[in-house]
Amino acid sequence: MEPRRIKTIIIEDEIYDRKIIEKILENNYSEFIEVLDSVSSVNEAINAINKNNPELLFLDIELNGNRNGAFDILEKVKHNFKIIFVTAKNEQDDLLKAIRLSCIDYLIKPTKISDFEVPIKKIFEQINNLKQQNLHEIEIFKHNASVLNMQEAKISLQEGFTYKPTTIRNIIRCESQGNYTRFYYLDNTSSLINGNLKLFEDRLTDFGFFRISKTDLINLSHIKSFSRKNASWELLLIDNKILFISPQKKQNFLIHYNNLHVS
Fold first, then answer.
1. pTM for this entry
2. Cα-Cα-Cα-Cα dihedral of 154, 43, 112, 114, to 10°?
């Protein structure tokens, strides 16, 4: 039985980049992807989405000079689709951080064939759980793009088959447990989350977290005190948990800690 193809719309204002995406999908992913339309503006995108009811958008963040182009589209259509954002290299770095934290995939222009494999495979596998997860991801992305305090941003955490939005400031620390990570929260609860510690180190470092050892990633805002009396520096966290900083992490820890607490 042949796999059902994902109904897709490409939204990209640069004709060269739009044609590159079309060509890559046509030549390499036609058995998985069906491109229903390819448009270049906010209004064209809204009309195409309402007409075709796509399952996937390749969505340029900035459209025709409008930095909020992607937001304008998402505000005016029903979120029954997955998104792969497209953006220029190093463009709008604050939005890229919000995208990463929200678990939404993205491509950096200029795109190449190898960039598409991981997000398309991921989306193809997730398509059966599309509506609930997409509403969750998009709402988190919109929230994160609007907050001024990074501790008020939210992260999408998968516990079993359930996705839960969690505010950064509510996370005290993360502890490695093989292919999973245990999160500890301000309300004295914890949860075992899908994904190893390296995954969350990559996602949370820009939001005030630091990996102090092989097994522990901490929220720098929740340090109660730390002592440098012994060879291994001792940290006391807000939940009264005592942890030790690996010797090779000491210098970087001080840099990150001081950067966070500079007035």
1. 0.58
2. 50
